[in-house]
Amino acid sequence: MSRSREIVRTATVCTYLFRHGETPTLPDGKREDRLTPRGERQAALAGMTHLKNLQVLGILSSGTRRSTETIRTACTAAGMEVPGVEVVAAIGFSWIDDQVPPCDFYAIERRLHEEYGGSRRVPIYAWLEAYPHAQATRGRLTEFLHHRAKQEFMEWPLHSMINLVGGSHGPTAATAALNTRETMGLDFADGIRYDVEVVRYDTDEIETKLVRSRVLTCPDCK
Predict the structure, then answer these.
(1) E strands of the chain, at which residues?
(2) For residue 191, which of 96, 97, 31, 71 has the smallest C-alpha distance?
(3) 79-136 tens-digit pLDDT
(4) pTM, entire model
(5) Which of 59, 130, 136, 180 could bridge to 124 as Cys pair (CB 3.0-4.6 Å)?
(6) Are 76 and 43 in contact (CB under 8 A)?
(7) Cα–Cα distance between 80 and 61 in angstroms, integer?
(8) How is 160-196 classified by DSSP, letter by letter?
(9) Of the candidates 158, 147, 135, 140, which has an alpha carbon nearest to the alpha carbon of residue 196?
């Protein structure tokens, strides 16, 4: 009979992902890849509201200028130094256009906003049904959260709480939410926090589990 495993270490890896702040809208409905002055204020307010006094061990971006500007601004407003930002495609959605035929994301986004009374905070399950690539983005983001949690767990052996922050360029950053019916997609500078519990056993096996997801609303900037 095999003996039962014993837990030798546990930790929680918290990943905070923020949608970019407001950007200029082009005549065709698409967005410029930069923040407006209001978008900069939104990013700063999101940082002061949700990241103040947080010990952060990694700063990420989905790779666009607007997502990088957002997370830099948020972290700076929260009092952090930002020596560098790591680009991680999995926290955005542009990567999928290199693998499958692209769809008109902005047309889908406009239709969903109209269906929900003009709000950008559309339930994630509606995104999963309306956006053809949403399931793929959900799968890759979920895989990233587990893989990165394990990686950070091994890199920081004395930490029981590990925090990462990142900037994304789409509401799809919330597609990995545990409850897709109650979780809203992200408006400008909204965020979502994912908590992954990591357990190491005396057999050297490491297991991860996504245990919480919670939207972090950006206070309104007038």
Answers:
(1) 7-19, 58-61, 86-87, 161-168, 191-201, 206-216
(2) 71
(3) 998 989 999 999 988 777 666 677 788 888 889 989 988 887 899 999 999 988 888 8
(4) 0.94
(5) 180
(6) no
(7) 16
(8) SEEEEEEEESSGGGGTT-S-TTTPBPP-TT-EEEEEE
(9) 147
CA distance 60 to 126: 27
Torsion of CA 93, 98, 103, 104, to 10 degrees: 60
Three-class DSSP category at 63: coil
Q: Rounded CA gap, 156 and 19, in Å?
A: 27
User: Which residue type, as a one-letter code, is found at position 78?
Assistant: A
The pLDDT tens digits for 213-222 are 999 999 875 4
CB 94 within 8 A of CB 168: no
Report residue 50 CA to chain centroid gap. Answer: 13
Report how far apart, in Å, the C-alpha atoms of 89 and of each of 103, 157, 206 are. 18, 26, 25
